[in-house]
Design brief:
The chain contains 13 helices and eleven strands. By secondary structure, it is α/β, with parallel strands linked by helices. It has a seven-stranded mixed sheet with strand order 1-7-6-5-4-2-3, sandwiched between helices. A four-stranded antiparallel sheet has the order 8-9-11-10. The site of pyridoxal-5'-phosphate has 15 residues, from helix 6.
Length: about 450
Amino acid sequence: MRTLLEDAAHRAIRYLDALDRRGVAPTPDAIAALSAFERPLPDAPQDPLATLAELDAIGSPATMAMAGPRFFGFVIGGALPVTVASNWLSVAWDQNTGLHAPSPGTATLERIALDWLVDLFGMPKGTGGGFVTGATTANFTALAAARNAVLARAGWNVEAEGLFGAPPITVIIGDEAHPTLLKSLGMLGLGRNRVVRVPVDAQGRMRADALPRIAGPTIVCAQAGNVNSGAFDPFPAIVAHAHANDAWVHVDAAFGLWALASAQYAHLAAGLIDADSWATDAHKWLNVPYDSGIAFVRDPAPLRAAMAITAEYLPTEGAARNPSDYTPELSRKARGVDVWAALRTLGRRGIAEMIERCCAHAQRFARELAAAGCIVHNDVVLNQVVVSFGDAARTRSVIAAIQDEGTLWCGPTVWQGHTAARLSVSSWATTDDDVTKCVAAIMRAARA
Ligand SMILES: Cc1ncc(COP(=O)(O)O)c(C=O)c1O
């Protein structure tokens, strides 16, 4: 076992060391070589060292360098070294962290990580939460609590009785809500299409003056960090209107919540903390390994009502917090351990610096690309830059050229009628020198 694990560590270190020197996207040859995996299930046991060697020889080159400093697609952080290490260690522990009794170490670490996050974001002490796979599941989890609460106020127990015959719930969303929020609503039986959409402004923010009248059980879904522009909804107006009418406010804050960790950017999220629930990712801006998201609910009672399980053989009763009382899964990986490791290592100052560094890089991209004649379409308030290089066809061909050349990787979007490249600066690893190299590479492609 020692030889195998040491071999894995050596291979992983070699992989990470080489990231800065390889193209960000895998080469067509590396992708074609994946066909070597396509063979029948072996009959006989194989040498585990040979398994690892094959994984590395064929798998490693076929990866996108998301862990490296110049990947700007989607909203993707690179895992901080300490979280790669904590992940290795906790995988070796192999703790099923559904319940505290059989896995006290990891359950305790998750409870502490949750308390630290609640403190970091300035949420009320006692806020409930669960460590889940990502913002999609965090939205799902928090919205399950919201569904419970608004129906309970109307005298309906949705966990017991289901949605058939329940009082209808109105769900209000911004017109640029992330598509995964709609997926979460669909999974909860609230419908992807039966939402009331609020028009947005030129940055994709919900227009407070266009909020509809609220009557009956209602959930308002706001957003902190528009996936294109990075913009924040006007929370004070949304929360005031919703709470005056007994509605629940949920915020999809997949990456925007982390603005609260920085004194420089917290103002963007003014009023956010007055909502009832929040969803965020740790694999985005906290830079922990995939997959890792967090659902927070101000009043833990509806979250527990929606998620807790009871059965004779499950030791769920007791003073200690059972992680699975707050998540869709029972058997589960202790994702909060990597969150704990990141928080313990960075501290408040380190987190703030990481957020501010990413935002500064994004502002530099915007400034230098605009100065070179590219069109930046958004107000770069956070870590997102939406930039085009001419008309739609020209912009798409420049993005393809950037991806092929390999210095960096960014993807396309169509936002508010503009076909553009999205640059999301979310990795701890990106340096000033990387931005310099990337601006030069983008301009080479744009001028070719
Ligand atoms: C605003 C927003 N919500 C939700 C998601 C989905 O997050 P995940 O892929 O972690 O489920 C994203 C992903 O970029 C996002 O930007």
